[in-house]
Design brief:
The chain has five helices and no strands. It has helices at residues 2-20, 34-44, 49-56, 60-73, 79-88. Helix 2 (34-44) crosses helix 4, helix 2 (34-44) packs across helix 5 and helix 3 packs across helix 4. The longest helix is centred in the N-terminal third of the chain and has 19 residues, at 2-20.
Length: 94
Amino acid sequence: MMDTLQLAALYYHAHVYAKLQLGLTRLADAPLTQRERECLSWAARGKKMPETAKVLGITTRTVVFHLENARSKLGASTVAQAVAEAAHRGLILS
């Protein structure tokens, strides 16, 4: 239960942080990292964040971090939209 609450809080803060961009340089101009592409690829295959974390050998929080960065860089509102945009741009295989 506590893990779920922590994950929800992390996701919320990452989302608010990305929306406000908190005075940082725009991520939209930066290319996706290899890890961001990997996380998006697994999401495109229908893997949930904990499953992706297990496959990649990282924590679920790290998956959330990479997906939120990718979402922001792609100018997407949701992870699903980021997956679609990345596939459309040929950044991941769909």
